[in-house]
Amino acid sequence: xxxxxxxxxxxxxxxxxxxxxxxxxxxxxxxxxxxxxxxxxxxxxxxxxxxxxxxxxxxxxxxxxxxxxxxxxxxxxxxxxxxxxxxxxxxxxxxxxxxxxxxxxxxxxxxxxxxxxxxxxxxxxxxxxxxxxxxxxxxxxxxxxxxxxxxxxxxxxxxxxxxxxxxxxx
Amino acid sequence: xxxxxxxxxxxxxxxxxxxxxxxxxxxxxxxxxxxxxxxxxxxxxxxxxxxxxxxxxxxxxxxxxxxxxxxxxxxxxxxxxxxxxxxxxxxxxxxxxxxxxxxxxxxxxxxxxxxxxxxxxxxxxxxxxxxxxxxxxxxxxxxxxxxxxxxxxxxxxxxxxxxxxxxxxx
Lengths: 170, 170
Fold this sequence. Notes:
2 copies of one chain form a homodimer. With about 170 residues, chain A is mainly alpha-helical. In chain A, about 65% of the residues lie in helices and about 5% in strands. The mean pLDDT of chain A is about 95. The interface of A and B includes residues 20 and 51 of A.
């Protein structure tokens, strides 16, 4: 087995800084999927306590956060009312998430994450580093580089919680 | 109050790619400190269950991980035996961490994090983007860009756990 590639560097198909960012997002995603590999539906639905989010809900959350930042950065608009309603349980988690994000196998969450990510990578491949770092029109205190760093950062934050929760599953 | 700066971009005093990385590390650190603000020693020592790490131990862990990557990337050597022994409880956590990383106020952990970070930033300011992305001599499958991304990534992972644990403190 070849040693893992532990490098952040420009990647073919992306402008230089976008490529480095994609390397970070991909590493984060790889470790997220490793953290949930092999979990059953019951394990994905398990609630550690009454205030806890399930691992499945946290996976749905990561996909929904990514969809929001696709709207903001690629389409330069906030999510529509219909999108906000469709993503609310995954974005807000809590009671709504516990009620609605259940009874799905791992493949359901992984497919959603993968579909969303495919669109992100295609859109990033079409853009350049100037786009990445200029102030965003709909949020001038933010640039797309921060936005996509934040998508990865939120995913890693919840991966930490997922690892903690997984270690306590029966 | 001015809106928060949500941009990743080159920073004065650093080469361009190092500056972007420093922006990410600084954002991660800012959110880590916000996650623990105001905690008492008893809260920092609290163990959620018998397998749990305390919040204080997780803070000590972040500082120790950063020290290891300082050795690897700035000094191009693994930690010495004396360093490994001194940092073992914080690096390994678990039983050793629960036994030894206790009874310190928040200021103790914040001062350690701040001291370690000051050295990181000074060393990064002395280097350039070529250094950042070339293969590391002591680990050719790794570059310093990944190493420092990983320091931030590990910190964010544990920040997720800290937020989870803090929400359950009395």
